[in-house]
Amino acid sequence: MNLSPEPVPTTAGSDPADTAPQPGADAQPTLETQLAELQARHAEVSDAFLRAKADAENTRRRAEEEMGKARKFAVEAFAESLLPVKDSLEAAIAIPDATPEQMLEGVHATLRQLTQALERNKVVQIAPPVGTKFDPHQHQAISVVPAEQDANTVVAVLQKGYLIADRVLRPALVTVSAPR
Questions:
Q1: Closest C-alpha to 139, from 125, 122, 119
Q2: What is the CA radius of gyration of the chain?
């Protein structure tokens, strides 16, 4: 003899727990609803995070590519500005019976071309006039000599220096006056 109560067959929605009004059911969502909402929000935030991460990676990659192209094309532009100088030198060599005056004129013209090419690429010469205060950032003292001028000033320029975009490419080699 089985004393356990026999289950009563019910139809969907006829369970008294389903039809009984829950106290505060309208005011507070159920745990399942909250979980579903949080899972949906988590999925949105995860998706937004992954998109932002991919966007940042793409931006970094594009910046690296642009930097590489900028370096490549900067050298290309510099080389292109030097080609007329090379052409002039080759033309001078091609004239075997040029007079010294013609050669000198050609050398001066080629030097002008080279100077213009360097200036277009922001290469500026450092050639301090005599008496200029010695600047260790742009000058390199080769020797110190006694002179009738203020101490630590340029006496002579032995080799011009050069700047490229305000950065010293090569310092000017100078002799400097000794303290009296």
A1: 125
A2: 42
DSSP label of 87? H
Is residue 152 within 8 A of residue 139, CB to CB? The reply is no
| Average pLDDT along the chain, 180 residues, taken 10 residues at a time | 52 50 62 94 96 96 92 86 94 90 93 94 94 96 93 95 94 93
Strand partners for 177: 145
Run of H or E including 140: strand 139-145
Is-contact 161 139, C-beta < 8 A? yes
Distances (CA, A) of 74 to 66, 98, 106, 115, 149: 12, 36, 28, 18, 43
Q: How far is CA 6 from the centre of its chain?
A: 81
What's this model's pTM, rounded to 2 decimal places? 0.60
How far is Cα 124 from Cα 169, in angstroms, rounded to an integer?
9
Q: Does residue 173 contact residue 159 with C-beta atoms inside 8 Å?
A: yes
Beta strands 172-177 and 139-145, pairing class = parallel
Amino acid at 45: V
| Centroid of chain to Cα 96 | 48
Which residues lie below 8 Å from residue 174, measured CB to CB, with a gap of 6+? Answer: 128, 134, 139, 140, 141, 142, 154, 155, 156, 157, 158
Using an 8 Å Cβ cutoff, are 172 and 138 in contact?
A: yes
Please report, to the nearest 10 degrees, the dihedral formed by the alpha carbons of residues 169, 175, 176, 178 taken in order. Answer: 150
